[in-house]
Amino acid sequence: MKNTGYDTNAGPTPAFGPDQEFQKYISDKKFHLQQCEDCGIVIFMPRVICPNCASLTLKWRPACGLGTIYSQATLRPRSKAGEPPPPPHSVVLVDLDEGPRMMSHLPGVAPEDIHVGMRVQARIESNETNYFITFQAIKNKL
Questions:
Q1: Which is nearest to 31 in space by CA: 92, 95, 121?
Q2: Which residues, listed in sequence order, are joined to residue 29 by a DSSP beta bridge?
Q3: Among 2, 87, 127, 135, which residue has the least CB neighbours within 10 Å?
Q4: Same domain, 58 and 69
Q5: Using an 8 Å Cβ cutoff, are 92 and 72 in contact?
Q6: What is the pLDDT along the chain (142 residues), one digit of tens a residue?
Q7: Domain check: are 51 and 68 in the same one?
Q8: Based on the domain organization, do 134 and 85 belong to the same domain?
Q9: Residue 106 belongs to domain spanning
């Protein structure tokens, strides 16, 4: 993966719990989300209790990975003395088709090419220590 101008290393993964389960799925190249068996809500970030009804019956379900850009912010990092500025990059909020909203980015897409309402597809990427979800634009078929 090329340098995008920012660190995608989120730090160490917890040794147990829902975050570890999520990491296990994506390290196997599977995108899963939790769903409450009592109220039906689909959840992201992984957790042990449903934020909607306080149920403990959360199950992992495959996610389709499709979503729509809800919001976008362009970050323009400062340059260090004597160095050229790092390239700008965008952080996006994606409304997944299953319901949850997820923060991520679109590697390789210029900030000016990202717009609210853009359809995107999740993809699983990794660095030396972690796996993470990014998105890529879906080409419109005319």
A1: 121
A2: none
A3: 2
A4: no
A5: yes
A6: 344 444 445 555 555 689 999 999 999 999 999 999 999 999 999 999 999 999 999 999 999 999 999 999 999 888 888 899 888 889 999 999 999 999 999 998 999 999 999 999 999 999 888 899 999 999 875 4
A7: no
A8: yes
A9: 64-142
DSSP state of 52: T
Number of domains in the chain: 2
Nearest partner of 111 among 75, 78, 84, judged by Cα: 75
Structure tokens given for 97: 């088709």
What residues contact residue 14 under an 8 Å CB cut-off, 6+ apart? Answer: 20
Q: Are residues 82 and 102 in the same domain?
A: yes
- Retrieve residue 35's tokens: 């769903």
| Beta pairing class for 32-36 and 58-62 | antiparallel
Pull the structure tokens for residue 106: 């679109």
Beta carbons within 8 Å of 113's beta carbon, 6+ residues apart: 137
CA distance 142 to 139: 9
Instruction: Determine, yes or no, domain membership for 2.
Output: no
